[in-house]
Amino acid sequence: LSDRLGGVFDRLTKQGALSEEDVKTALREVRVALLEADVSLPVARNFIKSVEKKATGAAVTKSVTPGQQVVKIVHDELIQVLAGDSDESGELRIGTPPAPILMVGLQGGGKTTTTAKLAKRLSERDRKRVLMASLDVQRPAAMEQLEVLGKQIGVDTLPIVKGEDPVAIAKRAKTQASLGGYDVYMLDTAGRLSIDEELMSQVEAVRDVVNPRETLLVVDGLTGQDAVNTAENFDERIGISGVVLTRMDGDGRGGAALSMRAVTGKPIKFVGLGEKMDALETFEPERVAGRILGMGDIVALVEKAQQTLEAEQAERMMKRFQKGQFNMNDLKMQLEQMQKMGGMGAMLQMMPGAAKMAKQLDESGMDDSILRQQIALINSMTKKERANPALLQASRKKRIAAGSGLEVSDLNKLLKMQRQMGDMMKKMGKMGKGGMLKQAMS
Ligand code: GDP
Ligand code: MG
């Protein structure tokens, strides 16, 4: 695939903005990659369509081909879709104890294994007291399977009573969890080979008895479109709060994750990475995006080019500053960068040798509202005044302060800052690479 892409990208070497043609050509390859990763066809199609809109007209980083740029845009968009809302963390909602967690899914998807893995995580990492109960009266030895795992990980299981139905077991688990002072009780339900009415109504009855805090659907990540259909069915009927994708340790590229996210909108909370009890991790959108796309080297290449370009821009700016050229336009650019990047520190970090200064400025506590005021002051200056702040005498100062709704004293502070920053930059330059720059970097 990489070879094929290489060929396409070689032909697309125009610079500047991405044309519709660039984007279309590259996205054809991306589409193949998504389908090869087992992303479902309608999801792949929709995803491509949304990226097409975003990518057309986007800037191409110097020394990167348009095709490569498109791949980077695709990669970032994949991460966004996979991550969903930022308030959906992988952590489980426990709240007031005892919290019921209902595990649902088809047979063989990994419910029992995942129940035990999660119980282990909750008890060891989060120091919760956990009780597990198997409601699987269908499969012979299913209850014993959970009991054995419980012993292995040191988590209690509800004693097995032969002949009870799932709802009765759920009730007993609930009572036991309250009486026994457990923080969490996990209900491992029976699965079927496929969705059927009996299964659904059974799970529904259990749900109504315990009112679960989390209902986690456990699905085999290798099953692609089937996994998505299963998720839709369970969500419609039972209502799920999250998904656990198992068998993400295999050869599959995990396209089910994207389909799942796009179709159900439910967060993928964990991924299963093997049969062992600690083979469970929180869902990492970046890692999964990389795997689905399978173009990690191209993404890395574009990121490197972007970093190089930023460093070059910083260097050019630095050269100007060394010559003592630091006017209000420079300051405005710096202030805007600070706004964008969330702090002077981040901006200065990119300039060679300015790390120490970055720290000092960060500590001076310039928050967003001050930045906005300072930019407003500069906006009220004429072009000439910005290029040569020495022009600013009393009457001009009054005009500028009034124009931005601020005081002359605010403007004086800004002027002082511009002078100080200019001096600092110049000094750093004069000391040369062996002197202060080296010192500042240490
Ligand atoms: P259930 O029928 O849904 O309860 O499925 P089980 O928990 O019994 O799991 C079925 C099989 O899948 C077992 O052999 C598990 O060891 C295996 N399994 C579960 N999760 C994973 C996983 O993340 N990776 C791998 N490789 N195997 C898994
Ligand atoms: Mg089971």
Automatic annotation (TrEMBL):
Domain SRP54-type proteins GTP-binding: 267-280
Keywords: Cytoplasm, GTP-binding, Hydrolase, Nucleotide-binding, Ribonucleoprotein, RNA-binding, Signal recognition particle
Gene Ontology biological process terms in this record: SRP-dependent cotranslational protein targeting to membrane
MF term (GO), any: 7S RNA binding
Subunit structure: Part of the signal recognition particle protein translocation system, which is composed of SRP and FtsY. SRP is a ribonucleoprotein composed of Ffh and a 4.5S RNA molecule.
Family: Belongs to the GTP-binding SRP family. SRP54 subfamily.
Function: Involved in targeting and insertion of nascent membrane proteins into the cytoplasmic membrane. Binds to the hydrophobic signal sequence of the ribosome-nascent chain (RNC) as it emerges from the ribosomes. The SRP-RNC complex is then targeted to the cytoplasmic membrane where it interacts with the SRP receptor FtsY. Interaction with FtsY leads to the transfer of the RNC complex to the Sec translocase for insertion into the membrane, the hydrolysis of GTP by both Ffh and FtsY, and the dissociation of the SRP-FtsY complex into the individual components.
HAMAP family: SRP54
Protein name in UniProt: Signal recognition particle protein
